[in-house]
Amino acid sequence: MSAALPSPVPLPAVGALPPSAPLAAWVDHYWFSQAANAPVTVLLPDGRVDVVLERTGTRTSVAAYGSVTARTTLTLTPGARYVGIQFRAGCARHFLDAAAHELTDRAAAGSDVLKFGLNEALDANDPRTVIARLDAALLRHLRRVQPSPARIDRLIAAVEHLRGNVRVETLAAQAGVSRRQIERDFLDAVGLTPKTFAAILRFRHAGGRLRAGEPVAEAALAAGYTDQSHLSRDFQRFAGLAPTAYARGDVAFLQDSKCPTGDDDGFSLIEEGAS
User: Fold this and answer.
1) Domain presence at residue 259
2) pLDDT grade, residue 111 (50/70/90)?
3) What is the extent of the structural domain holding 121?
4) Residue 212: strand, helix, or coil
5) Which of 114, 147, 180 is the last residue of a domain?
6) Whether 184 and 243 share a structural domain
7) Domain assignment of residue 264, yes or no
């Protein structure tokens, strides 16, 4: 008699899985939410584009969500399951027909903007199966288009490396192009001006330090803010919260629960609302 196969690792309510190695340069992670029990979810700006599959019963719809520029509340379908692809900043351009600025603060039907097919993924129920099929579909598309690095990739990498603490004029001088050209590059690829993208990265860096328990004044200095009031303005702008309220975790954001880990199964065990 053969040994019984081990049961699959139970999935958390909300979690994430990193992409396969060949996709890591373009896809940050896949994420899932197994059942929408809350009527809404709250998103914070992160400078990324997501493709989201919503499954209700036997029906699956697909939408592409652009970068948001402020705290955004999205209505959820009760009982629906969600799986998403979050692209790295600027990398959705290889997979979508729409320029990123056309999606900023809005969503578009997947059938209108996707360059690749998702038919196999649409029929699956288990998030692991959906994600495996999404990964395969993206890999097939990459083999066809074979994207090569461009100036915008180097610019985005520079802003990310400095966590937003760089002036647009400096980027333009280093790239040997005008400030206006840099702005066009960012709007087309990221959906944001370079100044806004940099501000979002600085806010997110400060937010991570605050959630780790660092005092507001120290987090502001470490993140490159000129003073604490500047940090407070950005937190009101991007999170709708004072820095102290954000640090306490008074509100659970979807991004708090989506963190790929180095574990074998790849899923985070942090559930929405967990501290």
Assistant:
1) no
2) very high
3) 14-147
4) coil
5) 147
6) yes
7) no
pTM above 0.85, yes or no: yes
């493709």: which residue's tokens? 51
- Are the beta carbons of 66 and 48 closer than 8 angstroms? no
How much is the average pLDDT of 176-194? 97
Which amino acid type is present at position 222? A
Q: How many CA atoms lie within 13 A of 102 on its CB side?
A: 12
C-alpha dist (Å) from residue 261 to 30, 116, 148, 269 = 12, 27, 28, 9
Strand boundaries in the chain, DSSP class E: 14-17, 27-33, 40-43, 50-56, 59-65, 72-75, 81-87, 107-109
**Those residues with Cβ within 8 angstroms of residue 162's Cβ, 6 or more apart along the chain or in another chain:** none
CA distance 80 to 225: 40
Please name which of 253, 272, 229 lies closest in space to residue 46, comparing C-alpha atoms: 253
Indicate the number of domains in the chain. 2
Q: How confident is the model at residue 268, as a pLDDT?
A: 32
Tell the residue number behind the tokens 């373009």, with chain if given.
Answer: 26
Q: Is residue 229 part of a domain?
A: yes
Boundary-marking domain end, from 101, 123, 147: 147
Q: CA 88, 91, 93, 95 torsion: positive or negative?
A: negative
Distances (CA, A) of 57 to 84, 122, 240: 18, 12, 34
Work out the average pLDDT over 1-27: 78
Instruction: Give me the pLDDT at residue 252, please.
Output: 58
